[in-house]
Amino acid sequence: MLFIVLISCVATIGGFLFGFDSGVINGTVDGLVTAFNSDDIGTGFNVASMLLGCAVGAFFAGRLADKYGRKSLLIVTAVFFIISAWGSGIASTSTSFVMFRIIGGIAVGAASVLAPAYISEIAPARLRGTLTTIQQIAIISGLFIAFVSNYWIASVAGASTAEFWLGFEAWRWMFWMELIPATLFFILLFFIPESPRYLVISQQQEKATNVLARLYGKEDASRRFQAIDSSLAKDHHQPKLSDLLESESGKVRPIVWVGIGLATFQQLVGINVVFYYGAVLWQAVGFSEADALLINIISGAVSIAACAITMYFIDKIGRKPFLMIGSIGMALSLLGLVSAFANAGTDTDGTLTLGSMGTFALIAANVYVFFFNMSWGPVMWVMLGEMFPNQLRGSGLAIAGLAQWLSNFAITMTFPMMLASAGLAAAYGFYTLCAFISVAFVAKAVYETKGKELEQMEG
Predict the structure, then answer these.
(1) What is d(CA 433, CA 327) in angstroms, rounded to the nearest whole number?
(2) pLDDT tens column, 106-119
(3) Which CATH number is 418's domain given?
(4) Boundaries of domain holding 275
């Protein structure tokens, strides 16, 4: 069992880099505006460009993992993280910056679907939720470390736009800090085994049996091999996108729509606006850059605590209760934020001032972050990694991952425009509405997967 935990932790370094790469942009927005002289739309695209790569990475990683293996794709992902981290910091034009961010996005998108899939495929049912939740803790830890790193670098340099080491601006070093975990991830991946379920799917019986024996013991290996093998298509064809369609009617399988719904609602509640634009958000209501970066660190710590609760209870309580509690909690806390922003004043230069509502807004924001990271943050990835039958997992994750990152792109790209045209209250009003709708979605469409072996999942 210790071996399973250790290799799960290696896989979750991909989640850490997912979080770091997503969060590092938070403290660099001012630097990007100064370096590339971009307007609101240009800034929004510089921030959101990575998400286009995420959509591509999630889709093709899910499909290619069925052809070349989970481990092989994770190694390619690590190389992409390294290239992106270096290139984003060295970029001299907005075009080159966007190019390297898209490469990083491909890595983030790939890691987002491959890590939970890999963990689900090596973990026993009784621990699968707990081990897959480590992925979300890794994501939040990556965000948290990015926030801490950004805060420290900006504090030492004086501002994100100021010169730091070797004549380069601080914001460039914020990106380069990612080279350390990315290189570690690349090295450690060579020491983990391939997913046994991929090996069975690709008809590598001897290798699959050997890996299963390492994971569960020799006595259980043969039984598990037979269970996995019998769960695949009767003609043992390689997984393909058409498997997502019902053979008789040709309609998309209901499980695919549930996956798309889970992936989309996770973004429509606006969580990544808090993470990508946290510094901009709090500066917009009167906090200094240093205060805004410190608030991000607090939100990161709250997120990790919330994930720890989920990790402990998810295999005891189940997935659906966490989603329901999270949706209700997010809806109510977002409603509080809308109220605070709607009642904010305006100073002489047009900047919003929260005044006495500032403390309330901070509390509401962190309550929202807490509920998200206790529910939709980890549980969505847990469910996507386990809810699809073996024959459908790669293709199902490809479609759900594509939906997740396209939704993420849409939310991230539109926030600066909504902020400029309609204001914070209207923007957060939309996220609040989506949170309330997600309550109904969970109640009607989501089914429980706690305690089931992957071979028991139905399409």
Answers:
(1) 11
(2) 998 898 889 888 88
(3) 1.20.1250.20
(4) 2-456
